[in-house]
Specification:
Elements (H helix, E strand, L loop, with lengths): L1 H11 L2 H17 L4 H12 L6 H13 L3 H5 L24 H7 L5 H9 L3 H9 L5 H8 L6 H9 L7 H9 L5 H7 L5 H9 L5 H11 L20
């Protein structure tokens, strides 16, 4: 609901005023605490929506740059090249079941079935798998840390309202070089200073992510500890 309302505001509001509001959400969200922490998650969700019009994204980016809000402008970075030239067909053993059967299996309660799907993750079954109540945070962290992995799988983790509220999940996604750059740039807003510095030092990450992490780590208004998160919270962005 928050993401839906925010998306309407981005589309209908005056561009200059919209950017000022987003800058407030971004800066206050970096400091931690409600309601700006959940607003930041809603903003990350909206900007990660593939249906967001390019013209709107470009207009907000240009206005943020005009106002000198470079950290905010980076959130509008978009790249649809999710490792298009990479061959992910050999990332795991071939699956014996049909795709429809695997999607059904992702709703299963038997642990051995879920473990099999987690060992060979596929973007097509991620939505059901991440919603399965038997999946735990360690499962998702292990999944998000896998290398190599289809970036589309990591994109589903980012889009999961249930899991993207968890700091360890956000952190693991950021440190995985297979995470799409536009996702990593949005995750930086939730990181502690120590994790920003670490991201800036990791040569495996894209230059645009490392440079943004270094820039944000140098700012003074930054949260030093991850926000306290309810392990049973399931509302998300």
């Amino acid at each position: 609901m928050r993401a839906h309302v925010l998306k309407e505001y981005l589309r209908d509001g005056a561009t200059r005023q919209v950017v000022r509001v987003l800058a407030t959400i971004h800066s206050r969200g970096r400091a931690g605490g409600p309601p700006f922490d959940v607003s930041m998650l809603a903003l990350a969700s909206v900007l990660g929506d593939e249906d967001m019009e390019y013209e709107l994204r470009a207009r907000l980016y240009a206005e943020a740059k005009e106002q000198g809000l470079d950290d905010l402008a980076r959130l509008f970075f978009s790249s649809r090249a999710l490792e298009e030239n990479m061959d992910f067909s050999r990332l795991g053993p071939p699956m014996e079941m049909t795709l429809g059967h695997r999607k059904w299996q992702a709703r299963h309660t038997r642990r051995e079935v879920l473990d099999k799907l987690l060992r060979n993750p596929e973007a097509e079954v991620m939505k059901n798998l991440l919603r399965n109540p038997r999946i735990t945070e360690p499962d998702v962290v292990a999944l998000a840390s896998r290398r190599p992995i289809d970036p589309a799988v990591l994109l589903w983790v980012f889009k999961s309202p249930r899991w993207i509220t968890r700091y360890p999940v956000k952190r693991t996604l950021l440190f995985n070089p297979y995470t799409p750059s536009e996702v990593s740039l949005r995750l930086l807003s939730f990181m502690t200073r120590g994790d920003l510095k670490l991201a800036a030092s990791l040569s495996a990450l894209p230059d645009v992510v490392r440079e943004a992490a270094a820039s944000m780590a140098s700012k003074t208004q930054i949260v030093d500890l991850p926000e306290r998160e309810d392990p049973d919270r399931d509302d998300g962005a």
